[in-house]
Amino acid sequence: MMKERPKTKILVDGGDPAETEKIKSLLGFVDGQTTNPSLIAKNPEIQQRIAAGQKLSTEEQHEEYKKIVRQISPLIGDAGVSIEVFADLGTGSDAMLAEGREMFSWVPNAYIKYPCTHEGLRAAQVSVQEGMRVNITLCFSQEQAAAVYAATVGSKAPVYVSPFIGRLDDRGENGMDLIQNIQRMYKAGDGHVHVLAASIRSTDQLLACLALGVDLMTVPAKVLEAWSATGLSIPDKRFTYKGVDSKGSPLRPIPYKHLDLSKPWESFDLKHDLTTKGIERFVADFERTLQQPKHIA
Ligand code: G3P
Fold first, then answer.
1. Any bridge partners for residue 135, and if so which?
2. N or C: less crowded end of the chain, CB within 10 Å?
3. CA–CA separation, 125 and 159 (whole Å)
């Protein structure tokens, strides 16, 4: 159990309510939860059905996702449960928005996850105008985070942007620099976008997020368990992150860019190869559980 709650809200990154319960008893609380198609595909009940040779229809998959989210929703605090729309590289904003509206009705504390693409941000822009809470996922650049800010100005609820630390680290770029650069850039803003650090694979990344005072971090249960085994310590600002890439080599710094948050969101460069690969990976994981793939991007 944690004696002192950190400034950073702690979310479980997963798709299994039993895991969320376990972390809640370890920490004494769980502020929120993030889910995504890959994590839902790993849910034990879905895995059992697949192992028994029963692939799901799209409707069954949707119903399973709703059931899982409804089990998680009452277990968590005010950071909500993030639910991701189905999006392949060809999905338009209208389709994402229609699914987002439906998913938003599943639970009272939903955040709808849209990918950090042009279509995803169009859907997010309309969503916040309609009063929906959103989480923009697969963010890998400061430009993308600037676009998230500009597209969602005026949102009544905090908007989440999810930079993926681990996937940048994997290829040798310091993901923690991206977090710091976004925090620095947002200082000039109105505070409506909260940074939700994601793709956290190690206790070192978790500790670095706490030291930076990131607004929120989403962490797999196994990393939270490893942190708990070391006493749930909260580092101070002097903590230095010594990340390495997938081959164990030191990380390259990501330089800060001066960007004007008052520019139209469409003027920022939204392209990032890791966003594209991330969408492809979510689609592949989602489709592995289906009888008939919905669409191959
Ligand atoms: O929250 C995002 C996360 O689920 C992705 O993590 O480890 O697949 O990069 P990872």
1. 113, 160
2. N
3. 11
- Contact assessment for residue 196 and residue 275, using Cβ atoms and an 8 Å cutoff: no
pLDDT at 288 over 90: no
C-alpha to C-alpha distance for 227 and 211, rounded to whole angstroms: 14
Is residue 188 within 8 A of residue 261, CB to CB? The reply is yes
What ligand 1 atom has the least distance to the C-alpha of 167?
A: 9
Side-chain-side CA neighbours of 273 within 13 Å: the count stands at: 2
- Of ligand 1's listed atoms, the one at least distance from the Cα of 170 is 9
Q: All domains of the chain, ordered by start, with CATH?
A: 9-288 (3.20.20.70)
Q: Does residue 114 sit in helix, strand or coil?
A: strand
Beta bridge pairs of residue 244: 250
Is this model's pTM higher than 0.90 or not?
yes
The pLDDT, as a whole number, for residue 295 is 54
What is the reported pLDDT for 55? 85
Query: Which segments of 116-195 does DSSP mark as H helices, in order?
Result: 118-129, 142-151, 165-170, 175-186
Residue matched to tokens 């609820």? 157
In degrees rounded to 5, what are phi and psi of residue 211? -65, -35
CB 33 near ligand 1, within 6 Å = no
Rg for the chain, CA atoms, rounded: 18
Write the DSSP symbol of residue 232.
Answer: -
Show which residues are catalytic.
113
